[in-house]
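Intended use. Records such as the AB hydrolase-1 domain-containing protein entry shown here are meant for training and evaluating sequence-to-structure methods. They are not intended to support clinical decisions.
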Amino acid sequence: MAAGLNRKISAASARAHTRRPNKSTSSQLPSGMLKAALAVLLVGFLAWGFQAIQPPPPKTCGSSNGPPVTAPRIKVRDGRHLAYREYGIPKDAANYKIIFIHGFDSCRHDGSTIAEKLSPKITEEMGVYIVSFDRPGYGESDPDPNRTWKSLALDIEELADQLGLGSKFYVMGFSMGGEIIWYCLMYIPHRLAGAVLIAPAVNYWWSGLPANLTKEAYYQQKPQDQWALRVSHYFPWLTYWWNTQRWFPSSSLVAGSLDILSHQDKELIPKMLYRKSFLAQVRQQGEYVSIYSDINTGFGTWEFSPLDLENPFQTSEGSVHLWQGDEDLLVPVTLQRYIAQKLPWINYHELPGAGHMFPYADGMSDTLIESLLKGK
């Protein structure tokens, strides 16, 4: 029977039958090897990408690999420490107690921008005490991996309580520190005697801001800064990588570019040179836990909009002031005007010809403090 079957198979069929395995074998082996190679490359790329976007661990002050602790500090509710610096007359003798909140890429020593330029008439005759503190991750304050808008306000409240500033105190913030004043007005308004926002940063994604206005202001920035803000808002986990990679330009603000300074700002540069004495302390615990966490919080998705806030001083026992230069290239004056219009209880002060750094101008410290304390 086997012989009969063999006679019925043609030579062509036999050749076709013997060729199929060879053809299949010759095509499958390279294909399998290619797939394996692609898989290895993909895994390697993903591993490299994951490592690339991971920021280095912080060098916490006081730890074995961190900078030393040189400033007085308090311990807050979750065990973190906040470092601070005091100015003016002793707080026990002061009539007015002010907490100053520093801006982006700054630290507690930047409180001297206001405090050490006050005239004796303001400091001594009015009785002014000012305390400036390192925000989480800056200077000698511990990083806060769980930082939120509310936690920053609670840090300020705890600082006031542990320093014995009383049931009410004043707050003053500059730039991104000014933005944090909105947190105070939202979460601890009952503790405030008054507040002043100095060129406060504006989040382009706050609800209540007109789309046409934010779009116009947003596109006035350099393209690289537009992209840096998009990343921090939509992909905050990429913020560190975006600003440290070398393929595309990163944030002008992070790089310290002079192109984002107005004419007046550049004239004021000599008055800022004293910052060189403490500049190394600002990012000493790591850039991610200081400047990049700051960007992510400030330009992320907020859980409230400042435009929805109500007047915390319904009976005029205090006041809120917002100061803005009309030639500020960092914070759009058009958006600030709109916010002031929507919140008529804010005392809005616009300075013609002023840029972002106007607090460094001669006499501005006295002007800012007097407006806060006298409610004008």
